[in-house]
Backbone:
């Protein structure tokens, strides 16, 4: 009996040590991940003199003048407004079209379904710089440069393969009996999709909204190429413009602009993280 108790204590102690080691490793990884963002936020609250004297010191107090200067002198409000409009329009197109695609490839019977599915997925293998010039020439030929369409549909094209994989796998886990029952009750394809399937895949739609929104919010290369009108610049391009004004506005307003850009989706993710993790896990069960 004593030996059994001793062995149990030793095993319990070993498990506790492993758990403590894992916790320390995860804490260290978390600190490494979050440190750059925390550092940027701290710099945004410093005076210009404090930043130039030491980039590692803490701000003596919270100076919100940097944010005021970024909005008033560096045109941050315009860039933010443009990005919100572009992201909202992109999400509307992404969610509607990807949901329709996911339902078609998961539940509908059609010829060459696998072929078209893999054709869409091939887009993930094509590096963006390779298709940048052809996309730009198409935008110019269509006469839609500096318009919302020039931003939204290329963003959708880039996000469609990943979005299709996630929502198709999620829909694959929904029993076909639900659809068959709805058909027996007289429901058509569109009613089944929007009245039955969409409510069932809401967690995945939240995930797609976060991923697609982050993609549109932070995208830089295509926004820089397709937009030449400075009044239509997005936040990512606008921050580069603000950075070029360091000589007149200083460094700290640039950090304020970076903080505004970064914190939007950090806050959104914190509110939706449970749904995000749950839907990703459910969509990975079957693929």
Residues:
């Amino acid at each position: 009996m004593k030996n059994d108790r001793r062995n149990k204590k030793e095993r319990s102690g070993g498990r506790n040590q492993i758990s403590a080691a894992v916790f320390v490793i995860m804490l260290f990884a978390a600190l490494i991940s979050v440190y750059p963002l925390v550092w940027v936020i701290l710099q945004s609250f410093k005076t210009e003199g404090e930043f130039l004297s030491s980039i590692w010191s803490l701000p003596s107090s919270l100076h919100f003048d940097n944010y005021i200067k970024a909005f008033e002198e560096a045109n941050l409000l315009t860039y933010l407004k443009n990005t919100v409009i572009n992201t909202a329009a992109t999400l509307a197109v992404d969610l509607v079209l990807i949901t329709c695609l996911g339902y078609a490839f998961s539940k509908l019977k059609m010829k060459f379904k696998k072929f078209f599915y893999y054709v869409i997925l091939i887009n993930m293998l094509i590096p963006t710089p390779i298709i940048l010039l052809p996309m730009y020439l198409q935008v110019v030929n269509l006469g839609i440069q500096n318009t919302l369409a020039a931003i939204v549909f290329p963003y959708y094209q880039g996000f469609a393969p990943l979005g299709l994989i996630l929502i198709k796998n999620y829909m694959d886990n929904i029993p076909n009996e639900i659809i068959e029952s709805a058909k027996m009750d007289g429901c058509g394809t569109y009613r089944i999709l929007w009245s039955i399937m969409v409510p069932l895949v809401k967690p995945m739609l939240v995930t797609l909204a976060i991923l697609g929104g982050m993609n549109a919010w932070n995208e830089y290369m295509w926004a820089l190429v397709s937009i030449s009108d400075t009044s239509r610049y997005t936040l990512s391009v606008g921050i580069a413009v603000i950075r070029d004004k360091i000589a007149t506005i200083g460094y700290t307003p640039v950090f304020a602009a970076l903080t505004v850009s970064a914190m939007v989706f950090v806050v959104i993710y914190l509110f939706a993280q449970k749904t995000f993790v749950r839907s990703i896990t459910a969509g990975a069960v079957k693929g």
